[in-house]
Specification:
Length: 232
């Protein structure tokens, strides 16, 4: 149940701010021509996404929230044809770039949504996804903005509802304070189990591609914290 459900009189605090980034001609072309092929529209409130109609093969579905420019997500879909992927991103240049990459590789196991992730998660059927990926979300590092962080109890209720038993949650951040917050929220979520041997964080698994953003952070001496939980 989201904050919006809990009190319909108040607008839900969103975890993102729409930026008016410059969109290239190729990204705009991809949005116009490839979204009808690879895009997903959010259904009306109260209705569920018809996942079986989205993919030619019925296979485990991985959802990634905030895929940026889509490079890592598309490479994962390309490397794992036995899995389906649904990427969610609100910034149109990134969605356009992802669509362009998907079309170039002619991938059939990936779709993208340009929409609020919370509303997409609400539309996912119960026990319908095999994994949730959330890599480097906005940390909202100022204390007065922590309420905007996407990782909270209400969000985790949506995630665990959508996850199949045995499904995973993989999060990563380069802000230690946000990593500690994520760990606290995940530990407090019923029916989740931390896979880290020390009960904290795991080393970056090979399944998560090393992005240019992360490589730059390593050069600057920034740490990165990965969390990997399983639904019991």
């Amino acid at each position: 149940m989201t904050e919006e459900n809990l009190n319909p009189q108040h607008r839900r605090i969103k975890s993102y701010v729409l930026r008016t980034g410059r969109i290239t001609g190729s990204q705009e072309h991809a949005l116009e021509n490839y979204f009808p092929l690879y895009g997903v529209e959010c259904p009306a409130p109260g209705q569920s996404l018809e996942l079986k109609s989205l993919y030619p093969q019925e296979q485990p579905l991985i959802v990634e929230i905030g895929f940026g420019m889509g490079t890592s997500l598309v490479s994962m879909a390309q490397a794992n044809p036995h899995l389906n992927y649904l990427g969610i991103e609100v910034h149109t240049p990134g969605v356009g770039n992802a669509l362009k990459l998907i079309a170039q590789e002619q991938l059939k196991n990936i779709k993208v949504a340009c929409h609020d992730a919370i509303e997409i998660m609400q539309a996912l059927p119960e026990n319908s996804i095999a994994g949730l990926q959330l890599f480097f979300p906005d940390p909202w590092h100022k204390a007065r903005h922590h309420k905007r962080r996407i990782v909270n109890a209400q969000f985790m209720e949506l995630v665990t509802r959508a996850l199949v038993p045995g499904g995973f949650i993989h999060m990563a951040t380069d802000w230690e304070n946000y990593a500690e917050h994520m760990l606290e929220v995940l530990n407090a979520t019923p029916n989740l189990e931390n896979t880290a041997s020390d009960g904290l964080y795991i080393p970056r698994p090979d399944s998560r591609p090393l992005t240019k953003f992360e490589q730059r952070g390593h050069r600057l001496g920034h740490g990165v914290w990965d969390l990997y939980f399983i639904k019991k």
